[in-house]
Design goal:
The protein is mostly helical and 222 residues long. The protein contains nine helices and four strands; from the N terminus they run E-H-E-H-E-E-H-H-H-H-H-H-H. It has two domains: 80 residues, Glutaredoxin (3-Layer(aba) Sandwich); 117 residues, Glutathione S-transferase Yfyf (Class Pi), Chain A, domain 2, CATH 1.20.1050.10. Helix content is 50%, strand content 5%. Helix 6 runs antiparallel to helix 7 and helix 7 packs across helix 8.
């Protein structure tokens, strides 16, 4: 396997975490695609992913690359079921997937580079206005998560009970978007932040953080 990604990409972060949790990270070396320099538009990469986004996971069987982080996470869960990142019961799996989708479908898409670039270059928003956009949508997703996690009895040490799930992988990425990228005040989402803290105690999460990737600026590396 090989993973096409970008050090700052939250979607790539999610795949990195899942690979690490499954013990596969060393089997999938990461090939950097610098989204700021426009490497995603290179014809060679467009053959891998015509959408020109990351991540993309190329398997050893020569078939089509896997794209979109949630599809990749589900693939890894199905092909490497231990440790399990989805509960055994259908209702639990639905809850975990729902929490994950708040992040990957409702929160993250508003803040990706191509959206920020469109806001600036086409709509003419200045940097402060763009940053307010990013902060607004990033925090709104966390507030929605807090509404679930703080009041639903299924919440435990992590998003769903006391074992890590795909929801934790996605929630951690959303916290990074809000806290590190959006510079949001996260004091109003204490349950989310407690769970994020528990996740970051895990090596798979800690070493997958964008700041610890080879392409990260030296002043950000942890």
């Amino acid at each position: 396997m090989k993973l096409y990604g970008y050090w700052r990409s939250l979607a790539t972060f999610r795949v990195r975490v899942a690979l690490a949790l499954k013990g596969l990270q060393l089997d999938a070396p990461e090939i950097p695609i610098d989204l700021i320099q426009g490497m995603q538009h290179d014809p060679a990469y467009r053959k891998v992913n015509p959408q020109a986004v990351v991540p993309a996971l190329v398997l050893d069987d020569g078939g089509a690359p896997l794209v979109q982080s949630m599809a990749i996470l589900e693939y890894l869960e199905e092909t490497h079921p231990r440790p399990a990142l989805l509960p055994q019961d259908p209702r639990g799996r639905a809850r975990v997937r729902g929490l994950a989708q708040i992040c990957v479908s409702d929160g993250h898409p508003f803040v990706v580079p191509r959206i920020r670039r469109y806001l600036e270059k086409v709509l003419g928003l200045d940097e402060p206005a763009r940053d307010r956009w990013v902060a607004h949508w990033s925090l709104q997703a966390l507030e929605a998560l807090e509404g679930h996690l703080a009041h639903e009895p299924e919440t435990g040490r992590y998003c769903h009970g006391d074992a890590l799930t795909l929801a934790d992988v996605c929630v951690a990425s959303q916290v990074i978007a809000a806290k590190d990228y959006g510079r949001c005040d996260v004091s109003g989402v204490p349950t989310v932040m407690r769970i994020y803290g528990e996740c970051m105690k895990t090596d798979a999460f800690a070493r997958s953080h964008p700041s610890r990737q080879p392409g990260a600026p030296a002043d950000l590396r942890a």
